[in-house]
């Protein structure tokens, strides 16, 4: 029994640090925009970057960009790079991708949502609370798109060479 425990490394997951890597708020049409009707339309763009720091430590950066327009004028643009350092050890390779690409961003998202909300209010706009994002679904869609692209390219890139 002791041999089996030594062969299978213990799974470890911990959040070492959560921090803002970069933040930006722009309101290019203020103050004119404050004088008209407020009928906003917003777009949300998300991206994730993963950086290997050292053995079992990863930096995950969740990039959130929100653009709000009223008519054809931009009311504001908020860009937040919410980052975290995660210790992840003992997980098989097939589980590491979803952890870094879905689970870690889902942990970072509430922090990014708070930053976006605070910046929007400080910009003198009505509070904007971003709705929950299903990172598991987004990760699965991304993997499916990547698999389709590789199939179209004739599988020129081996799976283990693909970077996160």
TrEMBL record:
Pfam families: SecB. Its main location: cytoplasm. Keywords: Chaperone, Cytoplasm, Protein transport, Translocation, Transport. The keyword Nucleus does not apply. InterPro entries: SecB, SecB-like_sf. It is found in: Cytoplasm. HAMAP family: SecB. Belongs to the SecB family. One of the proteins required for the normal export of preproteins out of the cell cytoplasm. It is a molecular chaperone that binds to a subset of precursor proteins, maintaining them in a translocation-competent state. It also specifically binds to its receptor SecA. Homotetramer, a dimer of dimers. One homotetramer interacts with 1 SecA dimer. This is Protein-export protein SecB. It comes from Marichromatium gracile (Chromatium gracile).
